[in-house]
Write a structure and sequence with these properties.
It contains 5 helices and 4 strands; from the N terminus they run βαββαβααα. The protein has helices at 12-24, 63-76, 94-105, 112-124, 134-142, and strands at residues 4-6, 31-33, 48-54, 77-86. Strands 1-2 form a two-stranded parallel sheet. α2 (63-76) links the parallel β3 and β4 (77-86). The model is unreliable at 153-158 (pLDDT under 50).
């Protein structure tokens, strides 16, 4: 049974709406918290069965912040529990993604060098975090107590 919903990226207005939805649905036992994803203050170690980071990693400010969040999540998740990380943008595909956008916009007369320059500019200005999947394999060494189930479905896309 869901007892706690913790979303570090809800605006105050969204949090109020989610709280109202829970009350309307009779979910009075649900606690909503609005705080940063890296703030595990007040949670005992091994107090979560599951931590879900779905469609939020791209809004994290850096890979270091992601690792910090995962450090807290690993500590807060009970042995045998799960941490699900989904809908993460693949850094290896970022250039191809931006090149496809630029190709769609470019006139047929555009020089390849100009097209490449525009793609490189878009990659450099990319506001969302993209992660090389190799990071998650490397994290097995950083977190030796966790298992790893691999990559599934369309979790790696731009």
């Amino acid at each position: 049974m869901l007892q706690l919903l913790w979303n570090g990226f809800l605006s105050r207005k969204s949090a109020a709406g989610a709280e109202a939805d829970c009350r309307t649905a009779g979910l009075r036992h649900v606690t909503l918290l609005q705080r940063g994803a890296d703030d595990f203050t007040g949670f005992e170690p091994a107090s979560f069965d599951t931590v879900i980071l779905n469609s939020v990693v791209q809004y994290f400010p850096s890979v270091d912040y992601l690792v910090q969040v995962l450090e807290g999540a690993v500590q807060a998740t009970r042995p045998g529990g799960a941490i699900f990380i989904g809908d993460v943008r693949d850094l290896r595909l970022l250039e191809a993604f931006h090149l496809s956008v630029e190709l769609e916009r470019a006139p047929a007369s555009m020089r390849v060098s100009k097209l490449r320059q525009q793609m490189e500019k878009r990659v450099a200005e990319e506001p969302e975090l993209a992660v090389d999947p190799a990071l998650f394999l490397a994290l097995r060494q950083h977190f030796p107590s966790i298992g790893f189930s691999g990559f599934a479905g369309q979790a790696w896309h731009s």
